[in-house]
Amino acid sequence: MRGKDQLGRDLIIARDYLTEGLRTRASAIVTDELGPRRDLEIARAQERDVTAGRLTRLDARIERLARDGDLTRPYGMEKLSRFDRALIQRRLEHLRGMGLASARGDGAFALEEGWKERLQAIGREGDRIREIAAAFNTGDGLSGRVYDPAHEQARTIVGRVVTDGPEDELRNRRYLILEALDGERWHVSLGETLPGAVPPKGSVVVLPSVGQPRASDRTIARIAALNCGMFSDALHEAFDPASRPDYRLAHIRRLEAMRRAGFVTRDSDGRFAIGADYLDKAARFEAARTGGVRVEVKSWLSVEAQIERRAPVWLDAVDRESLTGKGFGRETASALSARRAFLEREGWLGEDGQLKSGMRDRLAAEELKSAADGIRGKGAFLKLEDGMSISGVYERPVDLAQGRFALVTRSKEFTLVPWRPELERYRGAEISVKARAGGIDWSVGRARGIGR
C-alpha cells in the first residue's frame, strides 16, 4: 500500500503482472479454496461473453488473433478448438451487428477502426445505467440517463443527490446519481474531484447546460473588455492595485494553460489576446480538463432539513409552478408548503408572500452565530469584517442553510468564512484569510500563497 517492499525499497511490479498476473493469481487462490470450475460453468461464462455489451476476454483473444484489424487468415486460429473457433465466430457476428466489424464475401471479418475503444465506451454506459438502478432500487423499471453536457440538447437540471461513487479512483474522478425535479434520474460524471468537495446525499445541485468558467476567468474577461481585448500582468495590476503578485501569476498560468490548448494567443510582449467569447472557451476548456461536469450546489441541506430552519434556505426561492408531481418535484412541493406554513407562523412573510425586507440578512447572521456557538473547545468566535484578516488552520467544512463555510482555527479563537472547493487541498494546513467587500481572499501559509 505504501509502494515499498519489506526492505523499504521502492516496490516495482511488472506491468504484465498488474494487468494479467493478479487476476491469474486470484483465480488460483479461489480454485485452491473451492476446487476447480466445472467445464459446464466455464462454457456458460464464455457463452455470456458472446453477446456482452462490453469488452470481454473473447475480444482480447480476437485482438491477439487479428492482424491490422483483418481476420481473413488470423494467425493461430487453426490451433484453437472447434468450440473456441465457434465462440469467436459468433462474437464477430455480434460485433458486426453492433457496427464494430464488417463481414467479407469469403466469410472472413474485418474489425472497424476504434472498435475496442467504442466497445469500452458502451460498457461504461451500461455500468452507469446499472449504478442508477442500484441507487434507487425501486423496482419500477426506470433506468435513468447519462448526463452529457456536450450534447446539443443538454439543459439545466435541478436535482437531489441520491448517492455518489468512484469512477476512476486513480484520478480522483467521481460520479453523482441525481433525481431531478421532473422525476428523471441522471448519472453525472464530476471529473477530478477532491473527496471533501463532493456534495453530500440529499443536497440540492444544479447542472448547468454548459460548462462553467472559473472566477479568475471572469476577472480576465472583465480586464480584457476594458483594454481592447488584451490582458497582461501590468494591465491586471493597473485594474487592481491591491492585488498580490502571486494572485496575478495564477491568472497568467491559467491563460498559459489555455494557450497550450489553443484557446488564446500571446504576443511577443507577453500580452494575451482575449476574444469576446472567452468565457465560453474557458467553460469548454474546464470541462475538457476535469473530464466531467462542475455542479453548483444550491443547498448543502436536504429539503426536509430546510422546512423549519431558522435561516434563509433554497426553498424560499423555489417557484411552485416549476414543480411537477413526480419524485423529487413532488417532495419539494410538499416541503415548500410546509416551509411557507412555518414562515407564516413565525411572522416572517410579507404581503407578497416573500420574506420581509431585511429578514434574509438577519436570519443569515443569526444562523452563523448559532453555528459558532455550537463549536466547542476552539476559543472565541471572531467574525471577520471588511479588511480584517486571520491566519490559522483550516480544519473542516461546516454546512449551513445559507451555504458551506470553512472552519479556520488558531490558538484562542476561530472564524467561519465562505468555503471554496480548492480549500480541501489544504485541510489541516495553515492558511491566511482576509475579508474583502463581496468575499474573502485566502492564501496558503502566512506569507505566500496561490490564491487571493
Would you kindly provide a brief summary of this structure?
The chain is α+β, with helices and mostly antiparallel strands and 452 residues long. It has 12 helices and 17 strands. Strands 3-6-5-4-7-11 form a 6-stranded mixed beta sheet. Strands 12-15-14-13-16-17 form a 6-stranded mixed beta sheet, covered by helices on one side. It has a 3-stranded antiparallel beta sheet with strand order 8-10-9.
Can you walk through the features of this model?
It is a single chain. The longest helix is centred in the first third of the chain and has 22 residues, at 115-136. A hairpin with a 2-residue loop joins strand 16 and strand 17. The protein is built from twelve helices and 17 strands. The model is unreliable at 447-452 (pLDDT under 50). It starts with 14 loop residues before the first helix and ends in an 8-residue tail after the last strand. The protein folds into five domains: 22-113, no CATH class; 118-211 and 293-297, RNA polymerase II/Efflux pump adaptor protein, barrel-sandwich hybrid domain (OB fold (Dihydrolipoamide Acetyltransferase, E2P)); 215-290, Arc Repressor Mutant, subunit A, CATH 1.10.10; 301-357, no CATH class; 361-444, no CATH class. The protein is α+β, with helices and mostly antiparallel strands and 452 residues long. The strands form four sheets. A six-stranded mixed beta sheet has the order 3-6-5-4-7-11. It has helices at 15-34, 39-50, 57-65, 82-97, 115-136, 215-225, 233-239, 245-260, 278-290, 303-306, 327-346, 359-373; strands spanning 101-103, 109-111, 145-146, 157-168, 173-180, 185-192, 204-207, 230-231, 265-266, 272-273, 296-299, 380-381, 389-400, 403-409, 413-418, 430-436, 439-444.
